[in-house]
Amino acid sequence: MSSCLPHGTMRRQHAWIALSLIGALSACAAGQDKSPPDESPPKAEGNDQKPTVAKGEVVTELDQAIWHVFQARNGDYWFGSHDRGAYRYDGKTLVLFTTKDGLPSVGIGGFQEDKAGNIYVTSDGVSKFDGHAFTTLAVAVDSAATDWKLRPDDLWFPGPQNAGAVYRYDGEALHLLAFPKTKAGDEHYVQVPRSQYPNAKYSPYDVYTIFKDSKGNVWFGSAILGACRYDGKSFAWLPEEELRNGSFGTRSIIEDKDGKFWFCSASHRYAVDLSEPAAPSFKREEGIRDATNEVPFGGIMSSVMDGSGALWMATYGQGVWRYDGKSATHYPVQDDGKDINLFSIHKDNQGVMWLGTQTAGVYRFNGTSFEKFRP
Q1: Lower CB count within 10 Å: N or C terminus of the chain?
Q2: CATH superfamily of this structure's domain 16-35+58-372
Q3: Which residues contact 256 (CB under 8 A, 6 or more apart)?
């Protein structure tokens, strides 16, 4: 399900900007009128204003549209709703936080934690929770291309919709960083001109997911242009047509125990050699196959690695798949006998797997199957 978590851990910062549209490009081409969230950077409270203490509301159950699950180091679980706010569960009490408590929006796009234990919530910008109050971080007024830096403790977040940018938080300032333009990006605007598709409220550079690899490089999964790796000095885009111009986008990036990468699909994995930034090398290898030599499942929404090095992959309607490097095990996830759409998978502090779903609440792995979680 992160940019600044231990190596091999995926925070999957899905950009919630377009998550209700699995086919964003198709929808725009069809002329559907989808009102986007606020595309401008968030405005923070002034330094002379004291943040409102976040008391929250004690509730007895979770919303059904819980897209994100996260466990903090202190043991608290956080659940992000599509349109109800953020829930915190300490094992006894379930508390719901909304705009009444200082969040800028009730649409939650993910959670992260810094070394000091502060929780960061993606919600129409980035909000910091210090245990008492939420503060919306202000975007540095002097953010520029030179603010692209790679530091081990920085936190990375998807940027606003249609901005083609990401946020980098260095502990003091929140920088809004636009991606350098590429030939593929320019070609997309030629193929999908905004004059012809006025409802296309997205940038091909918009980010769905962010992942930090074992070497400390940061990877971005984009809406249209595939995957991009940033090493602190240069950008390398994966030149694979299968990741570009589709309706799914690159929603999951994971590095396996062999140092190979999986980009949103079980079809292939990639050996990456970026020792020469000017000429990056991506070697495609065969991915997961069943007994008939077919790929057993479709696009991956989210993925994590367990303590044994096996990959757990959550899909949109095809359950969860565990791959140990040799064989894949399927775990159906159903509600009333029907397959449900999964949005994210999270490994908690004890190594237990949790699922966020589109409309079916939260699921937890009990050792043999995924069962619905009820606080």
Answers
A1: C
A2: YVTN repeat-like/Quinoprotein amine dehydrogenase (2.130.10.10)
A3: 262, 269, 305, 309, 311, 325
